[in-house]
Design goal:
49% helix, two-stranded antiparallel ribbon, 357 residues
Length: 357
């Protein structure tokens, strides 16, 4: 071993323990996605203790694979195992998080996002060497669905009930009938949730990614809100509108943009004089040391693989990162011409900023 540093074996073993936990968690991400796509969690939800053969029969899967999958799930505490009966069970709390895609804490989407992100690892290695970017559209398509399924539960739990009411006068406008632009809408989850809650308002979702816009249009039709929602392909600095929107929303996308200051200036041009810009961003403190926690770890990791490369692939390439923090976000917004910015709401995963002209 090079160097003169002495190894503290207790500290080394503690670290190896953490690393082994991470290794198991990495493998488990794939097993969670398998359980989600094959309906294994849904079949176990509310079913009580079940054998591998029974679960395989209910899901038209192979018993041997299911038995191994259940054993792995039991080691991680995702399911429980009774050695006396040799049966497995999905507790109600785990079922709520793993088998309820319309719930506020649905988790498999996060694992789907993570697995899809890792497919870009060879290209990200090259970007580390060259400093070039990797566009959002260049990732595996599973990332687009995984991202929607990761963020949508938080939007379900907070957007209509907490975040919009925290904005000054916005909920009242939406109830009466307002015009809203949802920029960087992706698959349209946020747009559709708002349109469902406020049927008198009109919503337009914009995203530069054509495949996501096509998906969003289908989702709006399926949700029965196509009469008040449209989706169009447009970048954040180019979407149409001149002082016509009561509300512009950016959900978890401002930090991904190459020129967020330019996007901010464009939002200002498209808002009415009494309009509001709602900016939802990953929660972060302004100091790195205050973000050294499990949520920060998720966001810094995702930012290394997705957000920073996405920004660097665009003009300016400011690369705010997913843990930009409120101070840097405020700086971007005010440089775009906004004069009033405040934190209106927050969760462990998001902060909501309200910007006014």
């Amino acid at each position: 071993m090079n160097g003169t540093a002495e190894i503290d074996m207790a500290k080394l073993n503690e670290f190896i323990g953490k690393a082994v936990t991470d290794l198991g968690a990495t493998f488990n991400a794939g097993l969670v996605v398998i359980g989600d796509k094959l309906g294994l969690y849904k079949a176990m939800a509310g079913a009580g203790p079940i054998t591998p053969a029974e679960l395989a029969s209910r899901t038209a899967t192979d018993e041997r694979y299911v038995r191994e999958w259940l054993s792995a799930q039991a080691t991680g505490g995702y399911v429980t195992y009774d050695p006396a009966t040799q049966r497995f069970e999905l507790p109600p709390e785990q079922a709520f998080a793993l088998a309820n895609p319309d719930g506020p804490v649905f988790f498999p989407g996060a694992m789907q996002l993570a697995l899809a992100t890792l497919k870009a690892e060879p290209r990200i290695i090259e970007r580390f060497k060259t400093g070039e970017g990797l566009g959002w559209h260049e990732h595996d398509p599973e990332l687009f669905q995984g991202t929607e399924r990761f963020f949508r539960p938080n939007y379900i739990g907070n957007l209509v009930s907490n975040w919009i009411p925290a904005l000054e006068g916005v909920e009242h406008k939406l109830k009466l009938g307002a015009k809203v632009a949802d920029v960087g809408c992706g698959h349209g989850a946020s747009t559709i949730l708002m349109a469902t809650a406020f049927p008198k308002s009109q919503f337009v979702g914009f995203d530069y990614h054509p495949a996501s816009i096509e998906y969003a249009r289908r989702a709006a039709a399926d949700a029965g809100v196509a009469d008040r929602v449209t989706f169009e392909v447009a970048a954040a600095k180019e979407y149409p509108g001149n002082a016509e929107y009561d509300l512009v929303t950016f959900f978890d996308c401002l930090h991904d943009m190459g020129d967020p200051v330019g996007a901010s200036a464009h939002v200002l041009r498209t808002l009415k004089k009494d309009g509001t810009w709602m900016i939802v961003e990953p929660f972060a403190s302004d100091k790195l040391e205050e973000n050294l926690n499990p949520v920060g770890r998720v966001y810094y990791s995702a930012s290394t693989m997705i957000c920073t490369p996405a920004s660097k692939s665009q003009e300016v390439g400011l690369a705010l990162g997913a843990q930009a923090g409120e101070a840097r976000l405020r700086d971007v917004v005010t440089k775009g011409g906004f004069t009033r910015v405040r934190r209106a709401a927050e969760t462990p995963f998001n902060m909501v900023l309200e910007a006014r002209p």
